[in-house]
Amino acid sequence: MTVDPTDFGALGFRFSWGDHICGIFDSHAQQMETMGAFVAAGLISGQRCVWVGPPASSRALRGQLAGIGADLSTLEASGQLLLLPDADFYLRGGLFDIERNLDLLYTLLQENQRDGYLTMRFAGDLAYVQTGELDLRAWEEYESRLTVEARGLPVVVICQALRRQLTGSHIVAAFRSHPLVLLGDAIHENPFCRSVLAGPDQTSHVM
Fold first, then answer.
1. Long-range pairs for 72-79: beta carbons < 8 A, 24 or more residues apart
2. Fewer Cβ in 10 A, N or C end of the chain?
3. Which among 52, 131, 47, 40 has a CA at the least distance from the CA of 94?
4. Torsion angle, CA of 94/96/100/105, rounded to 10 degrees?
5. CATH of the domain at 190
6. What are residue 157's DSSP bridge partners?
7. What is the spatial distance between Cα 13 and Cα 34, in angstroms, rounded to a whole number?
């Protein structure tokens, strides 16, 4: 079985490499069905798929992939599927550091190329934004920087959360920092995204 390498895996949507998408879901089942299909499409296409989230989120993704016949032990042992804890990625030592988080993403991309993968799908579960240790302005700045820096790179980044996990302030910040928004069963271009005003190719990292 083969799929288009830029097939989202649901909704009949095609993304472009360098896209930064925010997915907001009404239920856990909807989130896992959509994001599981997104990850599965990448695995079938021979892409590395990275999932960053709390333990419960990673278990749910494993269950979703196992339910459609994925050989999880082989995929994880080979490194094609990486499941990383959000506490270590986003809040190491209890601190949210924008530059460190961007550096971690670039390290993953460099390792991706070193290991022979041409492209990478990165899915981050936003459950961590609920922590009282996270400064909302710093998070919005990070997401805005990510929008600008991801352009032209061989990665698609999806930040995703349940609607009930986000306050009104979180949703406003998400809309200001993501050019594309996945709501329910449709992808929308986001006219409220401020990051698109920064212009293309203004990256501070070099691959």
1. 75/43, 79/48, 79/115
2. N
3. 131
4. 100
5. 3.40.50.300
6. 20, 122
7. 11
Number of domains in the chain: 1
C-alpha distances in Å from residue 172, one per residue of 13, 60, 113, 133, 161: 24, 27, 35, 19, 14
Angle between helices 55-67 and 28-44 (to 10 degrees): 60
Residue 82 within any structural domain of the chain: yes
| Residue 92 placed within a domain | yes
The secondary structure element, H or E, covering residue 152 is none
pLDDT band at 184 (very low <50, low <70, confident <90, very high): confident
At 86, the amino acid letter reads D
List, edge to edge, every strand of the sheet that includes 20-25: 81-85, 48-53, 120-125, 155-162, 20-25, 180-183, 186-189
Compute the distance between CA of residue 13 and CA of residue 109 in angstroms, rounded to an integer.
24
pTM above 0.70? yes
* Helices 98-114/136-150 angle, 10° precision: 30
Give CA angle at 92 (204, 34), nearest 5°.
Answer: 80
28-60, pLDDT tens digit by residue? Answer: 999 999 999 999 999 999 999 999 999 999 999
Q: Cα(191)–Cα(207) distance, rounded to whole angstroms?
A: 29
